[in-house]
Specification:
Elements (H helix, E strand, L loop, with lengths): L14 E2 L21 H7 L14 H7 L6 H9 L2 H5 L16 H4 L13 H14 L4 E6 L17 E8 L2 H4 L5 H27 L4 E4 L6 H7 L4 E2 L5 E2 L7 E8 L9 E2 L2 H8 L1 H5 L31 H11 L5 H4 L2 H7 L6 H5 L2
Antiparallel strand pairs: 1-8, 2-3, 3-7, 4-7, 5-6
Helix pairs in contact: 3-8
Bound molecules: iron/sulfur cluster (SF4) (2 copies).
């Protein structure tokens, strides 16, 4: 069945909330160990089927099958999209990338070392958001750092009280080809853009005399931080659903000691809509997404962090499908009505995407 069919249109009325719209069981909630991220488990978890399976090892065999969206050109595009993310060392870092001004030894002063006096954190937040928009963030929110969302191994000093959470929109026609390779290009470009945006916003903060830890998926869980920062709500697919783009975004964040005013979380009925919708679960070729009517505290695999009431996604099954597919998948992004309500179209064929 074409995934553009049989979809209800969500009403998007956004309300500010006093606290984040998730329900936690504090007795089960612990800081998640980054060792249990599925990509980490590939390297150490000998008892799991995905141990040492990389999803590009099958690419040449897949190309031979000649399916649309899985040609050498499609894979060349998808793997090239990660170039900046993978090659730019300053993107995910807490230190200056490299000196791009005359050094203090030459001109006698490093003006960035003096601390800019922030009298009005709300005004500073507006500066930060405008800077983030200029540097490529599609959405920006601010929250206090809930240290429960830090990975167990993350050693972040207490002075990093604030988090700037940024969402980068992913290319809609690309995502709409999922699970074909152009969708993975849209994802990879999202990560590469994150490297650019993070490095520039981080440097903006350091130029004000404060510290910035630029993070992609590392250091802390992005989705709960994004919820705290008022960017959206959690969906059945385990992703942040934003009012503007649905789940068609990538998330990154900066932990900082710069004084800022936090945003309020938002509510717009995602959980209630997800209870009936289930499109992501229906179209997931890995059966990795729960079909249960109600969310629960029951985890699906070791790569889930227990303690939140939600639909847990089986990351093991998801990853194994990526291996079969030769590349990552975004079908649970593309079919989500919170995505298509804006784009108007869930499916784009690889031929339509390439316009050839
Ligand atoms: S990325 Fe693909 S395989 Fe993984 S949960 Fe989403 S739809 Fe399923
Ligand atoms: S596709 Fe999934 S995440 Fe999106 S609204 Fe439907 S159930 Fe929720």
């Amino acid at each position: 069945m074409n995934s553009s069919q049989t979809r209800k249109i969500p009403k998007i009325n956004v309300h500010k909330a006093e606290k984040s719209p998730y329900i936690l069981d504090q007795s089960k909630l612990t800081r998640f160990s980054s060792k249990n991220i599925i990509f980490e488990r590939v390297t150490w978890n000998t008892s799991w089927k995905g141990y040492m399976q990389m999803y590009d090892e099958n690419v040449l065999n897949i190309i031979k099958k000649g399916e649309l969206g899985y040609s050498r050109v499609d894979f060349a595009l998808a793997y090239s999209s990660w170039t900046v993310h993978d090659a730019f060392e300053g993107g995910f870092s807490r230190v200056k990338i490299k000196p791009y001004r005359a050094s203090a030894a030459t001109i006698g002063i490093d003006w960035t070392k003096t601390k800019y006096s922030v009298n009005d954190p709300l005004e500073m937040s507006k500066y930060v958001k405008q800077a983030a928009t200029l540097f490529g963030a599609s959405l920006t929110g601010i929250c206090r750092l809930n240290r429960k969302w830090l990975y167990a191994e993350a050693n972040v000093p207490r002075k990093f009280e604030n988090v700037i959470v940024m969402a980068v929109e992913m290319n809609a026609p690309g995502i709409a080809t999922s699970p074909a390779a152009p969708a993975a290009a849209a994802t990879g470009i999202g990560y590469s853009k994150m490297a650019f945006t993070l490095s520039c916003v981080g440097e903006f903060i350091r130029n004000l005399g404060y510290e910035a830890i630029q993070c992609g998926n590392d250091t802390a869980l992005s989705v709960p931080l994004a919820i705290d920062a008022g960017l959206g709500e959690l969906g059945r697919n385990g992703l942040l659903i934003t009012p503007e783009y649905g789940p068609r975004i990538r998330l990154c964040k900066i932990l900082t000691d710069l004084p800022l005013e936090p945003d309020k979380p938002i509510k717009f009925g995602v959980k209630e809509f997800c209870k009936k919708c289930k499109l992501c679960a229906k179209y997931c070729r890995a059966d990795a997404i729960s079909m249960d009517d109600e969310p629960s505290f029951n985890v699906a695999c070791l790569s889930n962090n227990p303690g939140a009431l939600k639909w847990y996604v089986n990351a093991e099954l998801c990853y194994l499908f990526w291996c079969e597919n030769g590349i990552d998948c975004s079908t649970c992004v593309k079919v989500c009505p919170y995505n298509t309500v804006r784009t108007g179209k869930a499916d784009v064929t690889p031929k339509e995407f390439w316009k050839v």
